[in-house]
Every structure is written in structure tokens, then in C-alpha cells.
Amino acid sequence: MNKVFLWALLVIYLWPLPSRSKVYKYPINRFSEKWRRWWPGKGSNTGDNFGGWLFYVSHAQEGIICGASYYSPLLMIASGSCINPYRYDMEGTGVVPTFNDENVEGLIDTVYTHPKYRYSKLYMDIALIRLQDPVRGKTTEFIKLCNKTIKPGMQMTSYGWGFDSMELKMSLDLKNGSVPVEDIKSCGKKFVNMGIRLSSTSFCVTHPSDPRKCRYDGGCPLTYGNELCGVVSFGPLCKYTNQPGIYTDINKVTKYIEQVEADSGTKQMSWQFSSPYHVDLEPVKLLVRNERVMTKVLLWALLAIVLWPLPSRCKMYRYNITRLSKKNIRWWGGPESNTGKNFGGWLFRVTHPDQVSLCGASYYSPLLMIVSATCIHPFRYDMEGTSVEPTFTDANVYGLVDNVHIPPRYIFHRLYMDVALIRLQDPVRGRTTEFIKLCNKTIKTGMVMTVYGWGFDSMETSPKDLNLKSATVPVESIKSCRKKYKDSDIRLSSTSFCVTHPVDPRKCLYDGGSPLTYGNELCGVVSFGPICSNTKQPGIYTDINKMVDYIEKIEREIDLGLLRFKPPQTIECVSAQSLSPLGTFREQLALIWNRFGNERIFAN
């Protein structure tokens, strides 16, 4: 009770008084933190001010060409379609606020568009405007990116001038209004005769039937609450009120935006606590503007140290993983070390640019993840842009696939040696990532193991769900398993074993490559799973015990620099002979050289 009273007293004393003022104490600079200037939403606007994040792009000859949303000190978000016609004539082009008459503006340095974007195509229709300097002024602010899934019927707020409605009446006054999201199938039918094809990054909204309220101006934003969820990608002429407006889904381009932000040197620091006793001091230095702020920071820090509960099952590590990180320092501690619904920092999924998820994956070493060959094989010639993403955090943590190694004796649709090793371009960053140990237990009938998956194969019996699930399952006798598959073309190999999954088809977890653990060790990956509606047949897994030699051989050859990137169909780069424990003189020399960064010097 004393703690609660002390917390309440401190909040009352230190919390700033509520205000609807849009004036901040300081102008934005290159080091301004986004979260301190995020737009709180429509309720914080004053008068006709729609927010200090809302700008327009002003061309030296053409005037207003696009709407723009202020995302970070040096980046604004618009659409590629509205910027593209002027891409070779941007000299003198600037961004101007819609919210005051002060002499506040920013000059454009360069414009980034997605590599897969094509003019008049709606896929990845996004443009990032990099400014020469941050926009000054004490009323400027940033807008957060959308983290809501766009669904039909959602009411959003659109902004625009209605320049496409000039046949009716032209106005330089910015307008806004509430619009509903339209079903994507219904929207596609309305554009079929115009040759417009919606892409996977598009969605539609129904604008008012009154053409005078048209707000289809290119690049103009669409918000949900206080978040930017879309920018105008294509809008028909305002007199055609039966056709909806097409927007780019910000959810689908968030990774690209954050990547450009990082690569262009505009990434902002965030105030993170790895534990109550470890504080990143750089953001604190930015906050210390005067004695009052310093007093508040010190008082909060002191109170946190005294009252904050001691960390008991924290998954946070002190450093990010590097190529030289030792596995035993980051080994997963088992289910009891997980926090909440986090099943472990080793559990990933493989995502393809054209698919939601391909496989489950297990992080084994800095540059290697373990999956099954069966789930990777259909995509072996189309791996460009394929990545691995964590199942344990929403942070911008992922790794790009460099190559895939498959045992030479593996044959597609055969279950012998059904394992694949994904080699990453770089280790996965993040202080919550960890590795999993390989199984050293002999698999026996009746052992109870833990299976993980999404249940994508169970869509016949239950809706598709991206939330990862787990369950305990018993190992089934290999003889019993063979009998259940005797009428099919499936033949178990010496590297396979079976588990009995729940009878309820809604709990089916047969997703390709997904792991099976015993304690804190990886003992199997999904090799073959029947259709979930047939609960009589067990799931077939590859026995990791039988694959340890191959996995460790690939790992060692990568460390020695003996493997290089090759087309996916050419898997092995050196002979399949096992290397000696100490290696030849050439291998030892390669290992020493590898420590200085020349990883592939001895590759064939």
C-alpha cells in the first residue's frame, strides 16, 4: 500500500498538466526522438489544425504535387506514383506544413522508392523523402506507423485538398473526413474494366458520394486513431463517385521504411531498459535540458531501483549476436525460461516475399538455422528476398537468407535425411535472440515431447491464425506408424520417427520445418504431416540425432571459409568427407584468416 501511495504521489507531482497546445518547447533537430513528438491523435488538434505531421510537397514550377507525412527528423512519407513524374526535376522542391503560416519549410535532399516499385503499378507504391535538414518550428511533430491489420468496415480518416475535383470547385483548404474500408474483392471488381489490378500491398476505401468532398490527392494520408495506415496510391476522377480510392497499406511497407531510415543514417535512438539496473545513457543526455528535467530523471531512476521487482525470468541478453558469438552462452534455457507467450528466442519462421510463411525454423548458430528440406525445396530457385523472422518479438528483428544447404542424398518427397540448413547473410540482431542445442537423447516410444506450429494445414477445420501454438505429444512406435501409412506412398526412412498428435483437428501442428523439443533440446523437425482432418495418421519428423554429423560438418566448413554462395541446386562446395577434429594445416590457416573477416578465401 505504501508503494502504491508513493507511486501515485510521484505521478501527481511530476506528470505534466494536460494541455491541448500544439506548441513544443524546442524545435526538431537531427537527434530529436520520435516518441517525444508523436501526434497524439485528432483530440489534440487545435482549431483547423489537423496535426503538425501533415505537410504537402511543393514543386518549384508545379506548386503542390503531393501530400506528405512527417515520420522522423529527416524522412517524410508520400506515394511513389505522385513523386515519380517529377523525379528528374526536384531541384528547389520543398515540403511545407499545412498547420501554420510561419516561415517553416524543408528542402528535399533525395527520394527513395522501393526497388520493386514500377510507375503505374500499385505494388509497393511508397516514396520516402529525405530532407536536407529537419523542419524547424515548435509545432512540428511526427506520426506513428500503423500496427493495426486493415479489415473491411474499419472507419478511418482521410485528408486532402480535392485537386481532382477542380471541375467542380477548387479550394486550397485542407479537408478531412471519415471513410470506411471496402472489401478488396468488391473493390477489384469495380476496376476490372479499367485495367487496374490491386496488389498485395493495396486496400480500398469508399469515399463520400458527394464529388465536392473528394480527397484522392496523391500521397495524402489515411489515419486510424493516431497512426498512419495508408497513403493515396490511385484515385479515380472525383465525378466517378462509385469507384473507391486505392491506398498503399503502411503495414506492408513498414520494414522497407525502417530499413531506409537505418541505412540513410536517420535511425533514432530509443530509451530501452535491458533490466532495471542497465540504462542507455545517450537518450538521457538528450533529455537533460535543465535542472528540472534532470531532477525528474534522477527521481524516477531512484524510485525504479527501489520499487521495481527483481528480474526473475528475463530473456534479455547484454549484447547482440555476432559471427563470433559462442553458442553455449546463448543456449535456450528450456520452457521454464520463457516469458509469457514467448516460446523462446530460437524459434523463427521463414517468410517468402510472395508468401506469409513457408516453414518453421530453429536458430542453431550465428549463421545457421535448421528447417526441413521438404518445405524449402519448392522455393529453392526463388529465394531472393526470403528472410527469417522471430516469433517472439514485434521489434524490427530479422535475417536475410544467403544460401540453403541440403544433404546430397536427400530426394524431394523422400523422407531420408530430410533436413535443410539455412545460411544467413548476417547473424540475426536483437538482445532476445538465442540458440537451441541439438538433441543428445535417443528417441524412444512413449517419450513426451513439445511440438510448435501455426496449424496452417488445419484451415479446413479452423480459421488461419498467425499466432504460434505449442502442445505436448507422445512418440509413437515406428511399427505402428508404418502400418497407418501402408496404404499410402509414404515410406518411413531410418532418419524418421513419428508422434501422435491430438485427436482434435483444430490443434493440428504439422507445419513444415516446425520443431519438436525434448527439454531444452531440438530433437526433430516436421518432415511430413497428413491433412489435419485425418487425425488417425501421425506426424512424421526427422530425427536430429541422425543428422548431427551433417549439421556440424556444414557449420565447421562455414567457419573455415570452405563454403561460398552458390545457386541453391549446387549445395555442396567441398567433398563430403568428414574433417578431422583439428583439421589440416590449410583448414587451420583458413580459420585464422576467417577471424579477420575473409570468410570465403578458400572457397571453390
Mind telling me the CATH superfamily name of one domain? Answer: Trypsin-like serine proteases
Total helical elements? 10
CATH topology grouping of one domain = Thrombin, subunit H
- Strands of the widest sheet, in order across it, are 1-2-3-6-5-4
Which structural class best describes the helix and strand composition?
alpha+beta
End-to-end distance, in Å? 69 Å
Mean pLDDT reading: 77
Q: Any guess at the CATH architecture of one domain?
A: Beta Barrel
Q: What does the overall shape look like? A: globular
Instruction: From the alpha carbons, calculate the radius of gyration and give it in angstroms.
Output: 28 Å
Sheet having the most strands: 6 strands, antiparallel, barrel
Describe the structure concisely.
The protein has 604 residues and is of the alpha+beta class.
